[in-house]
Design brief:
6-stranded mixed β-sheet; elongated; alpha+beta; about 325 residues; 19 strands; Immunoglobulin-like; Ig_V-set; Zig-8; single chain
């Protein structure tokens, strides 16, 4: 109804100006009143078209039908605006997930969608202490892990919680500043889950052989778990290298990565990530055959003790334990 009143008020003001004795003498012999009406109607019609409330109307047809009558024009223009335009109340989109599961240390996102928000504000409130965390895109807490996210002209308002802690678990409310206020509750569940690569933290793979890595996430929440592999920052399945096979079993929460005939460029940090779980990484070194043999020899020489060391160890044991005679079992005393 505010639009309807604004249109009528504008045309009423124009009519009053035209009927003024002082101003009427100035504009009586000119087309100023008609031009003023045309400009006002053109402005409002353009505004309505932009807002999608009406379709464009041919300018010549409006003139031929005396569209620019004083109050009649205002009445006709205001009738183009729906009566219930201002009466539409904000409503929540209940299709969003309202139970969010996040692993300890990961980032949680709570998505709230509000239709027909208008000029109202959306707030996120923590229910356990009724602390207002965000209003609009502004944050009202000293905890910098809480952030508000919103894309212009969208219906979605997101509460982002970075580095989730166990104390963050609980209920959060998405609230709209209507009278009375309306709100929708979201539950955040924090779990302790970590993906695990079944290998040493550092691997040395001979050039030309295969990489075979297995990752498990037994504690990941839910019946199914989606798992991904990255080399450094690149998704392994998107690599143009070829010769890569990823076999995942979502129900068993396992994933196997095989890279055939590795080269030096395959060296790097390999990371396994799972839904609602912390990731795990190993570093793979690709080495030549000669380097591999040299490393094996060096490792063996470190484990082998030289004969001189064994002799010194034997002498040290004799000194510590005393003469060999003291090692002989004592004869029991005679009973005579």
């Amino acid at each position: 109804m505010r639009w309807r009143h604004a249109v009528r008020a504008t045309f009423t003001l124009t009519t009053a100006i035209e009927s003024s004795p002082l101003i009427g003498k100035v504009i009586s012999n000119s087309r100023a009143p008609q031009i003023a009406h045309e400009m006002l109607v053109e402005y409002f019609m353009a505004l309505l078209v932009i807002m999608g409330l009406t379709a464009p109307v041919d300018k010549q047809s409006r003139r031929s039908s005396q569209y620019f009558g004083h109050m009649a024009a205002a009445e006709e223009l205001s009738n183009l605006i729906p009566d219930n335009y201002d009466a539409i109340d904000p409503v929540f989109d209940n299709s969003t997930n309202r139970e969010i599961i996040a692993a300890l240390g990961t980032t949680a996102r709570l998505h709230c969608r509000v239709r027909h928000l208008g000029d109202r504000a959306v707030s996120w409130i923590r229910q356990r202490d009724l602390h207002i965390l965000t209003i609009g895109i502004m944050t009202y807490t000293n905890d910098q892990r809480f952030l508000a996210r919103h894309i212009d002209n969208s219906d979605e308002w997101v509460l982002k919680i970075v580095s989730v802690q166990q104390r963050d678990a609980g209920v959060y409310e998405c609230q709209v500043s209507t009278e009375p206020k309306i709100s929708l509750a979201y539950k955040l569940v924090v779990v302790t889950s970590k993906a695990q690569i079944l290998a040493n933290r550092e691997l040395f793979i001979q050039s030309g052989s295969d990489i075979n890595l297995t990752c498990i996430a037994p504690q990941a929440p839910g019946p199914y778990t989606h798992m991904l592999w990255h080399k450094d920052t690149e998704l392994v399945s998107d690599s143009a290298r070829g010769g890569i096979r990823v076999e995942s079993e979502q129900q068993m929460k396992t994933s196997n990565l095989v890279i055939s005939r590795v080269q030096h460029t395959d060296s790097g940090n390999y990371t396994c990530s799972a839904d609602n779980s912390n990731s795990d990484s190993v570093f793979v070194h690709i080495i030549k055959s000669e380097q591999h043999a040299a490393m094996q020899h060096e490792l063996g020489s470190r484990l082998a003790l030289p004969p001189l060391s064994l002799l010194l160890l034997a002498v040290l044991l004799v000194v510590l334990l005393g003469p060999t005679s003291s090692l002989q079992p004592r004869t029991p005393l005679s009973t005579r």
